[in-house]
Structure formats: structure tokens, C-alpha cells
Amino acid sequence: MRAFDGQFSDNKPIRRNMDEKRRLLSELEQTLAGMKPHTSPSLRESIKGRIMELRAEVNGKR
Predict the structure, then answer these.
(1) Exposed (0-12), middle (13-18) or buried (19+): which is 33, by Cβ within 10 Å?
(2) Percent of the chain surpassing pLDDT 70
């Protein structure tokens, strides 16, 4: 089945406003803090990388 133009499955980044980015940042920080010790290192690094990106965006556009 093919996607039509404008459909969510178009592999386009989701546009978020600053409030949504701040909320996502806090959720990711809570997720990282609540991870168990046996969680895969690659998952931890992925979340840490996304947190760093969001912090840069939020702090740069205040």
C-alpha cells in the first residue's frame, strides 16, 4: 500500500513546538534515570544523544 502525500508515514521529521520539546526532554530524562542497570548500552547512548540535541534546541531558542 502506498502512502499519499502528507500522510504521517512519509518518513518526515515530526515538527514540535518549544513546549512539546521541553516536555519530551523531561520525559527522556526521566526515562534515562529510571533505566535498569542491565539496559543495553546502545539504548542508553541513543537516549543520551537525543537529550543532548533537545537541550541544545531548547537552550538555544529561549
Answers:
(1) exposed
(2) 77
